[in-house]
Amino acid sequence: MRQARVERQTKETQITAKIDLDGTGRYDVTTGIGFLDHMLEQLARHSLIDIELDCEGDLHIDGHHTTEDCGIVLGKAVANALGERAGIRRYGHAYIPMDETLTRCALDVSGRPYLIWKVEFSRDKLGEMDTELFREFFQAFAQHSGITLHLENLYGLNNHHIVESSFKALARALRQAVEIDPRLDGEVASTKGSLL
Fold it and tell me: What is the spatial distance between Cα 167 and Cα 165, in angstroms, rounded to a whole number?
């Protein structure tokens, strides 16, 4: 059972998350930030990873702690659900078009966290969410999941499309990378013998 439950309790946020890597893309997400909810729902639906997440954050200050901490908790949940990472395909990539926008994601579930972020916005906010916070989410997710994550918006005009295609690209690449490859017969896809 490749499932995990993670809690994070700080003075800034209280978060509980559950995931199932072998799910069907079901989601139940409440962060207090409508646009972030929408993006995490996209992440679940297009990765086929079931995600339940409930967050109460200090939104009276701003959305930073909520956004970053949701990335931390979901990253930890993915890492915990993967366990020894045995038998997974390890690598994933996706190109996601959304109208005038095209975004590319390539990732390695390597145990070595790293983020390359080549995504720019022409607006400061989408809904009530600061666009600068999207990088914070992806950084936290990569760091705590142990994933090398390269995300690049190749072109696009609409900021909503740029963000949404980024989350969908992560979702599709992640779906590919965490899938069990029967040809590996439970072995780790590394000459080192470990992805931790």
Answer: 6
**Structure tokens that stand for 170 in this block:** 């992560």
> What stretch of H or E contains 46?
helix 34-47
| Residue 88: DSSP 8-state | B
Query: Phi then psi for 67, rounded to 5 degrees?
Result: -65, -50
User: pLDDT tens-digit profile of 43-79?
Assistant: 999 999 999 999 999 999 999 999 999 999 999 999 9
Neighbour tally for 1: CB within 10 Å: 7
CA dihedral 75, 128, 59, 174 (to 10 degrees): -10
Q: What is the rounded distance in angstroms from the CA atom of residue 189 to the CA atom of residue 180?
A: 11
Structure token pair of residue 168: 């969908």
What is the DSSP secondary structure assignment for residue 180, as one 8-state letter? Answer: B
Q: In terms of C-beta density within 10 A (0-12 exposed, 13-18 middle, 19 or more buried), how is residue 145 classed?
A: buried
Distance CA 180, CA 187 (A): 10
Per-residue pLDDT reduced to its tens digit, 116-148:
999 999 999 998 899 999 999 999 999 999 999
pTM score of the predicted model: 0.96
